[in-house]
Specification:
63% of the residues lie in helices and 0% in strands. It is mainly alpha-helical. The protein has one domain (24-100): Orthogonal Bundle (Cytochrome Bc1 Complex, Chain D, domain 2). The longest helix has 35 residues, at 2-36. The N and C termini lie far apart (58 Å).
């Protein structure tokens, strides 16, 4: 009886650790976006500054490839600074995925 209980406990703990890790990653991407991007692009993707792209615009999102986003994030564009010395490839990919979630289809 004791072995099955220990096995179930180990499985439950492993699942909880995996869930915590995934949540922490998502939160850190949101925190990264809020800290570095939201001042111009808005917390929800609607621009706060003139000429900043509207990430909620599905047509804008469709017109940009992930590679174009990657280059803009790393190299900068117009008044936006580049972050190649601050972000690693995993952070950039996570930011792009996060930005992609902001697109809203027009009604």
């Amino acid at each position: 009886m004791e072995k099955p209980f220990k096995l179930v406990l180990i499985v439950v703990l492993a699942c909880l650790m995996g869930c915590t890790s995934a949540t922490a990653t998502k939160e850190s991407v949101e925190d990264l976006y809020i800290k570095r991007c939201s001042g111009c692009h808005g917390v929800d993707g609607e621009p706060m500054k003139l000429n900043a792209p509207d990430f909620t615009d599905a047509e804008f999102q469709k017109s940009r490839s992930d590679e174009q986003f990657r280059v803009s994030i790393l190299e900068g564009k117009d008044k936006m600074p580049g972050y190649k010395t601050e972000f690693d490839n995993e952070q950039v990919a996570a930011l792009i995925a996060y930005i992609r979630t902001m697109a809203k289809e027009k009604k």
